[in-house]
Each structure stands twice: as structure tokens, then as C-alpha cells.
Amino acid sequence: MKTAExxxxxxxxxxxxxxxxxxxxxxKLLADCGIVCQRRSTVGDNLARIExxxxxxxxxxxxxxxIGGLGPTMDDLTRDAxxxxxxxxxxxxxxxxxxxxEYFAARGVPWVExxxxxxxxxxxxxxxxxxxxxxxxxCCRKAGKVVIALPGPRGExxxxxxxxxxxILEELQSGTVIHSRLLRVCGMGESQxxxxxxxLMHGDNPSVAPYAHPGEVHLRLTARAATRGDADLxxxxxxxxxxxxxxxxxxxxxxxxxxxxxxxxxxxxxxTLAVAESLTGGGLAAxxxxxxxxxxxxxxxxxxxxxxxxxxxxxxxxxxxxxFGAVSAECAKEMASRIRLLFATDFGVxxxxxxxxxxxxxxxxxxxxxxVAKGDNVEVASFQWRGGREDVRLRSTQMALVQLRERLLNxxx
Amino acid sequence: MKTAExxxxxxxxxxxxxxxxxxxxxxKLLADCGIVCQRRSTVGDNLARIExxxxxxxxxxxxxxxIGGLGPTMDDLTRDAxxxxxxxxxxxxxxxxxxxxEYFAARGVPWVExxxxxxxxxxxxxxxxxxxxxxxxxCCRKAGKVVIALPGPRGExxxxxxxxxxxILEELQSGTVIHSRLLRVCGMGESQxxxxxxxLMHGDNPSVAPYAHPGEVHLRLTARAATRGDADLxxxxxxxxxxxxxxxxxxxxxxxxxxxxxxxxxxxxxxTLAVAESLTGGGLAAxxxxxxxxxxxxxxxxxxxxxxxxxxxxxxxxxxxxxFGAVSAECAKEMASRIRLLFATDFGVxxxxxxxxxxxxxxxxxxxxxxVAKGDNVEVASFQWRGGREDVRLRSTQMALVQLRERLLNxxx
Lengths: 413, 413
Description:
The structure is a homodimer.
Chain A lengths: L2 E7 L1 H4 L6 H12 L3 E8 L3 H14 L2 E5 L10 H8 L4 E3 L1 H13 L13 E3 L2 E4 L8 E6 L2 E6 L3 H19 L4 E10 L3 H8 L9 E7 L2 E10 L2 H19 L3 E4 L4 H12 L3 E5 L5 H6 L9 E7 L2 H8 L3 H7 L4 H15 L3 E7 L13 E8 L2 E8 L4 H22 L3
Parallel strand pairs in A: 1-2, 1-3, 3-8, 13-14, 13-15
Antiparallel strand pairs in A: 4-5, 6-7, 7-8, 9-11, 9-12, 10-11, 15-16, 16-17
Helix pairs in contact in A: 2-6, 3-4, 9-14
């Protein structure tokens, strides 16, 4: 099998100022293409150090991918370092330079000489088109090795990785793919999940690994096979066995989110939803509306952050707040009923609680009530979360989605 | 100055399944302690490869920090690899093994022989206490080099990094700190910012580096000095000069967010805010309420995702929607006025538009209107964003905050 290494370039990465998400994306892509990633390295914007790490990587791996350092500024040194590591000169693509000049002229941006560095390439390189920026990527093939260089800005990097780079890597692959499938589980803790599937976790191919996330457990099933189809054939019986062990707690696979799963159930039933939020401040609505097409089932909501807003806009009774407070089961239930009526939906979901950091109405940080109304039937649950403000808010939206999903599943198709 | 390298161990990192946040945290810690991090490497759970990367790092750097691979399972090989790289044997700390046995017995967990691997250490190592797990860290000092090994689980890693490891690193530091300050700029593109501060960007100590983020530009000012106080003395005049060049566009420093800056202005003026959202689906409200104490100025909002909700709940005129559509300046203005009235606030902010992916009312994906109402005065702006759904939504909340901030600044203290 072909081997690869990834080299991320940027002093901001070495200083810990930015998180290297690109390198994780390329690592996934390599695995998808059946190329074994054996090392990832990060170096700063220093020509000698970039050259050194490239020379070392080229000794060990068939494919070396670099991220960053392709821009026009003096800090952008990856292009030069690749040429050095391959013992080549940089050559200027004058046709491309002319295009850059046109591009800048059309935008009325004055030309500075450094921009033309982006039209340079190591002699063995071809450009990889960058539709979202001025710095093209590079692909060098020399002495059986391949070097692929990509720019760092996310909007440029992502489409290049998903498009031309995937194609180059797929062509290189040697007849084996590493294929993973993620089973997403909600409403159960990690140890509970492990207890139920422990007997399925001893295999090597396919293998199962659990990962805990806030309010979810992900089981990663991985198989190696000649093709993705063959890998799927290995994964399917394992997938099936896990679903039998966990039942409806498996809510989605791969990148599908809990909010998407809930919206799909709503859509299948032709039902609608509105949400009333206090401590989550719109976070539940925002999660739901990340899903394209969410407007099919999600009509909207009210963020009743002040008590005024709970009574005057949402229509919670002032007596309820006076008697039980905003952080109460009674308030949550009334919020859920009211939002359902105001938006004329099938379901109303409400979240109220104390996101912290301080006590509120004498109630501790992390105490949260979630109510789900369907018709006249309102169910409420309470939770006491630990952790900071963002943890409490995230877990609260998660619990609301889990509760709503259970109501949807129990209310039949 | 002392140099360091970080080695992350874990096949899940090489497969891109988990993001290496620990390594960024250690990188920051090194910078804080004035130790220059020159390289970060990631290798899988493979003894020979971990040993190889450790031997290489030890040739280049004074300090090598490892993350992961200290647990009891067969995959946990960092302990063994460090011993190999240092040409040492592993020795068993029998006192610590006895403690582990007690710990497991007290919890009724059966002892398996592999657990005792956690009581092993390279001969030159001392244990670093791990109050939240069974695998201790390691600190080896040999021939002028220091190797520090930390376990991977977040709840164990973080307190060890912040506590004993920081102390070890501070003791190693050579009387120099690298101190950074981030100036956050909004309402200006990166090239506009660069044009205004280009004359300030040539220094080496202190230095300035710009980073573009959606709707913001961050300028990182970095200084090296004997103490943090001395570094601040180098940064202050540069900070001042940049603020003079950019004016009010500098909205915050370091980790302070735009939403926090806006809420602070509101608080200083004793004014209140409510928001009406369509395409952002609660994302603006959610951003505002991430800030602790946001309830001082933020009263709440309405997510009017369906047109029904715009008319029936928010009170936009049906004629407005019929004549101009929901994606229109007219609708945005009415939403802003209505939300201000409903919530009885000083400011009302509204966002409506098409988040994509498809055209809506014949209007393109990415077309967004943002209105800010104060009293009877409503101002509206329109934008045509490129990019995917999440980009459009993020940029829209950003533009709403920028617009609101301008209104706040222009309306005086």
C-alpha cells in the first residue's frame, strides 16, 4: 500500500493559535483513498525547516501533502521549500501571471511585485486550480514520489481537497480502501453503550471503536477491503448486530446530525415544530436551522430571555413565574404549550434553566428543564448538568432533541 | 532559548478521526513559557515509529513532549518507545502498582495483568501525578534533554498540562517570554486593514501578523522580552499606533468577541436589544447569549422562519410579504421595527435573506438584508455573500453585530 505524510506549515500552528483542522481532513481523505498516513508534521514559516521536514518525509513516504504557505507574502515559503527539497528551480508561468494581473486590474487593486510569486512553481510541478483564491495548488511528480501543496485559507483549501486532490489520490491508491462508518447513538451514556455492544468489539477487520461526545456516543466501524463496496459488505453485518443491540438509540450514520434526524422524522410525519428558549438563547433554533430544508417542519421560535418576554411576548402567566420562578418545570411546560399555540404547530419544545455561571432564583448553575408539548399533552424532564456555560447550553439543546425524538418515535409514523 | 517539539501519538489522529487540540494547548503553553516550539509531529500506535520520531526530536530539541499512549492496553506504546529512544529499560514502581491494585479492588473492578504496565517507567523517569486517571505522566531528564509524557484523555491531560507540566516548563525557561496580544478588527477587509497598517508591519520585535476570519481581521502583535511586563511595554506603543491607524474598527483584544463588545456598549449606555431572525434561525440570539451576563441588555427575540410566523407572531404586514417578499429590505425593516415594539427595547435588529442552497422567491442564495431600528429610525443594508449555508449564516450574524455596533457608536455614550 502507498504511504503518505502530511506537512502543515505555519508559525501560528506552532504557537497553538490556530487548530489544525485541515490536516485532519487530509488524513481522512487519505484513509478514504486507502493510502496509509504514517506521520503528520507541523513546522513554522521558516525556509530551512520546511525544506528539512519535506526531505525527511520524502525519504519515508510515497506521497507528501503540504498545507499553507502558498500566498504572496514573505512568510509564504512552501513553494520555495518544495523546490529546494526536490533539488529544482522555481519557474515563472507567465500566462498565469498575466491572468493574475488581469484579476487585480479588474478589481482596481494595485499590483505589487510579490503577487507574481503565486505564478511560480517548482520545475516538475503542475498547478492545481484554485477557483476561490489567487494562489494555485501544486502537484509535483518526481522519482516515484508525489508532492501535493495546498493553500491554507479554508474556503480555498476545502474545495481543492474534495475535488482535484481526491482525484489525484484515488488514482494513486493501490487496490485497498480503508472505509469507516460512524453509527451515532443518543440517549445513552458511553458505558451503557459499551456494555451492550462489548461482545461485538473484539474484531480486527471490521473493527469497532467508541467515542464519547456531549450527549452522544459514536461507534466507528472500520473495514479494509479491495473496494469500498467490499468494505461495506464487511461492515453491514456488524452494523446490523449493533443496531439490534442498541435499538432506536442509533439515530444516524456518518455526518448526519441529531437535528437532521429529528427534522426527518417530522418531515416523514408531515408535522411541524416551534421552540421557546430561555437559557439556550436561540441555540436550539440555530441547530435546527443548520439543516438545509429545515423550513419544511420548523416554523420558528421565541427566545424569551427576560421574564418580561416570557409573559408579554410568549404569554407565560405572571403567576407561574411569581410562584415557581423561570427555572421551573411549570414554566417550561407553559412555554412549550404557549409556543405551540402561537406558532400553530404540532410540537412545541421549551428549554428554561440556569446556564450559569451564578445561581439564579436560588437555583444552581446547570439546572435545566425541558418540556415537549404535543396537543394538550406536555411532558417535562429536568437535568442537572456540570460544566461551563457553553457545555450546559449544548447539552440542553441536545437533551431537547433527544426528548423530541422520543416523542416522535412513540407517537408513531 | 530552549527549543521544544511535541509528539502526538494515536492512530485515530492519523486517520483524521479526532482533532489534535491537546497539541495546540501544549504549543501555547510552551510559548507562554518562552520555549520555542519548532515542530509538532503525529504518529500512530506503532512502537518503531514512535521510537523513531522521538529519536529525531531529541536530536533537534531540548524538550520533547508526548501526548497519548500511556494507558494499559496493547495499543499504549509511548512508555516503551521513550525507554527505547533513551536507551533505557522500563522499571516497575512496585509501590505504585500496589496503589493501582487497591484502587481497582476498592471499585470491585477485576485486576488484569496489563494494568500494571501503568506502574512501569523508563529508568530515568519520575512520575507526574494524574489525579483524574490511573496512568501517571512521565518526566525524564537525561543528558541535558527533557522528555515529558502526558496521557491523552482530556480530563486527565488538561489539569496535568496546566499544573505540574507548566511548573516544569517555567523552571526550564531561559529568562525570555514570548507574549502575544490579538487586536480584533471588524467592518474592514483584510487588504483594507493591511493598507492602513502596512507601515507598522516591518518590525521583528514586536512583530505584527494579520489573520483573516469571516467578517473580522485579527492582528497578532508578538514581543519577546525577559518578562511579560517587559513584553507589554514593547507591545503598547505598537498597539497604540495600530489603533490610531484603524480607529473604532478595533473592537476588542485577545479572546473578547464582537458579541461581547456589542453587549458591553449596550450595557454602558443602559440600553436594551431584541432580535428578529429568519435565515439565521436563532444564530444571532445564540451568539449574543454565549456571553455571560448577556441578559443585562439582551431581552430576547423571535425566529420567524415561516412567513406565517413573520405575520402572525412578529406582526409583519401580509402586504409587505406579498409585495416585496420575505427576502427584501422592506421586510427586514418591518421585522426590526416590530421586534423592538414587541420586546419594548431601545434597539431592534432583523435579519432576513436566503441562506441557500436554492433560490428563494427568485432571489439568489446568499442575498441577505439586515435592519437596525432605534426609535422610529430604521436603517437597512443588503449583502450578497458567496459560500455555503453555514458561511452565509455566520457572515449574516457578523454583519448584524457590526451594523448594530456602528449605530451604538454613532448614537453616543
